[in-house]
Amino acid sequence: GEPVAKTEKVGSRSQHWLHRDLRVRFVDKQHKGGQYYNTKMTIEDVLSPDTCVCRTEEGRILEGVKEGMLETLVPKVEGNRVMVVLGPQAGRVGRLLGWDRERNQALVQLRRENQLVELHYDAVCQYTGPNDSDE
């Protein structure tokens, strides 16, 4: 029995959420002496399920960024576009209609079925990609 392999398959954390055109927050305090800690950036390319290339707001490219160094960003403005990054609707794009800050929930209107869903903040992320994807 190799318990390590088993937990990777079973654990829901094994669902990766990195996707091009997501706006994320860099949360790794150790990376490059904390130079990027708490800065916002956009995922430019996904190299593997847990590794990506990011572009900072100043236009700097960071390569080999691990999923664990990032967290999702929920927009502060209603009507902004978001992508569902975890759960059965992962990959779907919609509009943010509101928040329930006490429950850490975002109210999202998914495009195709005009469906309203409440999702945990960790399951949605600001999306800056082309308008036509998934609409």
UniProtKB/TrEMBL annotation:
Signal peptide: none annotated. One of its GO terms (cellular component) is spliceosomal complex. It is found in: Nucleus. The keyword Glycoprotein does not apply. It comes from the Eukaryota. InterPro entries: GPKOW_KOW2 (IPR041994), Rib_uL2_dom2 (IPR014722), Spp2-like (IPR045166). Keywords: mRNA processing, mRNA splicing, Nucleus. GO terms for biological process: mRNA splicing, via spliceosome. CDD domains: KOW_GPKOW_B. Its main location: nucleus. Pfam families: GPKOW_C. RNA-binding protein involved in pre-mRNA splicing. Belongs to the MOS2 family. This is G-patch domain and KOW motifs-containing protein. It comes from Mustela putorius furo (European domestic ferret). The lineage of its organism: Eukaryota, Metazoa, Chordata, Craniata, Vertebrata.
